[in-house]
Amino acid sequence: MTDLTASLERVLVIIPTYNESENVQLITARIRKAVPSAHILIADDNSPDGTGALADGLAATDDHIHVLHRKGKEGLGAAYIAGFRWGLEQGYDVLIEHDADGSHQPEYLPGMLERLKTADVVKGSRYVKGGSTKGWPLHRELLSRGGNLWTRLWLGLSVKDATGGFAAWRATTLRGIDLAGVEAAGYGFQVDLIWRALRNGFIVAEVPIEFIEREYGTSKMSGKIVGEAMLLTTRWGLKHRLGQLSGLVRRQDTKTGDRS
Ligand SMILES: Nc1nc2c(ncn2[C@@H]2O[C@H](COP(=O)(O)OP(=O)(O)O)[C@@H](O)[C@H]2O)c(=O)[nH]1
Ligand SMILES: [Mg+2]
């Protein structure tokens, strides 16, 4: 657990973008309105549709908007890690993960920041009481629920929406979870981060959100990304379960030793 009295004043909302030209202006305007004091970092992977240039235009007229130009598409996880590093270097107290496509509603941010006063990280959650998804086709709903179930079974997580990508992190929490060791480039990244937070004893809170399927642009979800997430979760899960088993055996041995 970190020092919960640490300042939460300087907030950075990180938006990873890949071909989000139809969304980038809409989402930044909504974030600026919802939390006027917060800064925004758009982490663009050299989107062929010109999202990076649009972001530069926004940054040129608003000193609360910043742009991180990355050389090419390396996955959402890699973009977030680069964004976190930038934000930590700049001295922000809170770093927020926020999709560009309108699925994450910035109007939840004030509530998430309030909740962060008594937690180390706050996740916007579709699967706690009051949370929901809207407009998702059945296969996406099943993929998300299945992914969460898979993760919870392997890792024994208490978090209901471990794969969700809407989260507010204290800088101190991010500094405490060894970002350099994060393996997943795609969506397994969310599980990787929250699993690290839990293992390090940080307080993870979930607040209900309504997740709305994007109106503009297309999803970057792919079979490769799902495969990576499943493989990594299974590997972490096996390691975790084997660790539990050897702990159990050691305890048994100690007990037997005590008696003899
Ligand atoms: N920089 C960067 N952003 C990405 C990449 N893949 C996805 N994103 C962004 O991550 C967010 C979530 O991706 P999205 O395609 O909407 O995934 P979905 O909501 O699971 O269908 C969006 O803002 C995307 O533009 C990537 O490789 N690089
Ligand atoms: Mg999306």
Quick summary:
This protein has helices spanning 24-34, 51-61, 76-90, 109-115, 138-155, 171-175, 188-199, 223-259; strands at residues 11-17, 39-44, 65-69, 94-97, 121-125, 132-134, 167-170, 204-208, 210-212. It has 260 residues and is an alpha/beta fold.
Task: Please describe what this structure looks like.
The structure is a single chain. This protein is α/β, with parallel strands linked by helices and 260 residues long. The protein has a single domain (11-255), classed as Spore Coat Polysaccharide Biosynthesis Protein SpsA, Chain A (Alpha-Beta Complex), CATH 3.90.550.10. The protein is 45% helix and 16% strand. The protein has eight helices and nine strands. The chain has helices at 24-34, 51-61, 76-90, 109-115, 138-155, 171-175, 188-199, 223-259; strands spanning 11-17, 39-44, 65-69, 94-97, 121-125, 132-134, 167-170, 204-208, 210-212. A seven-stranded mixed β-sheet has the order 3-2-1-4-7-5-8, sandwiched between helices. Helix 7 runs parallel beside helix 8 (223-259). The longest helix is centred in the C-terminal third of the chain and has 37 residues, at 223-259. The chain is globular and about 70 Å long. The protein starts with 10 loop residues before the first strand and ends with a helix. The mean pLDDT is 94. The structure holds guanosine-5'-diphosphate and magnesium ion (MG). Guanosine-5'-diphosphate is lined by residues 16-18, 20, 43-45, 73-76, 79, 99-101, 103, 214, 219-221.
